[in-house]
Amino acid sequence: MGEGPCHLSFTTIQRWLDGAGREAQASVPGQLEGVETSGQMGTDGLWARLRGGGKRVVLTLVDSATGLIWGTVVATGEEMAASWQKLFERAQEMGLVLEKVNGLTSDGAQGLLSYLRSGLSWVHHQRCVWHLWRSLAADLAKAVAQAAIGLAEDVAKAAQQTARRELTALLHAVIDARSYEQAEHALAQLKVHPLGATLAKKVNEQFDRLLHALLPCHQGLVRIGPEWLWRDFRLRLSRGRNHGSAERLERAALLWAIYRNFTPAQRRCERKRHYKHPGQSPFEVARGAPGAISYLDALGV
In this predicted model, what pLDDT tens digit does every residue of 131-141 receive, in sequence order? Predict the structure, then answer.
């Protein structure tokens, strides 16, 4: 054979990745058995398109303290309790002791809340504050608009700016409070604000879920859902989100989970990103052992 570059089709790379995904799928039972968990977890979903126009969501469960991924599954949607039950059953199959889970951060999908009430009733649900701010945006805009009713244009603009500044400060005081007492005091102020009644009602509905991370039993529980995980899923081994079928998508997600668990975080910080355990893989952090094993070793490649 003559020397020269070897050109590979993208389908060849995808077949290789899917083959590695099959190895990852076969290793699911007991994959993380014996690995300790902090009990403080986070979960999130990523939607993907399939061949023929279908859609599925990749659900994942991660230990907030160590960054270890405890399970990934592909489901038809986030609003069904059965989808989340499937995720926790996958984590249990991998070795997670569900009775040790006592805190969970998420965006508040109704299917997850339904499953927690029926299957994991002892788990405290921490509402993702980023998603809460998004859900409050429309009500905040309506409240600010009310401040301008009946005023001249130049006066109305100043009134709206003042109202937005006051309401935003009160919301921050509740959501970012350092204690329950501070949060209750700020919520009372929001309730008596002339434009704050609707906002106060919505925040009050989530009040306890906003503050679980303050409890001593939830050291390590984060207040933001683990959406940052999907950055690596899109850019690294999965090569995007289009894997044709739900089965191939799930195998890609299982392969990515092993890659994440056994790959050390880089040591240096980025402009907008800092690493909790620089130079260590999530598996190494969870086990407290030297990280001499790579994800290829874990796959048996």
Answer: 999 999 999 99
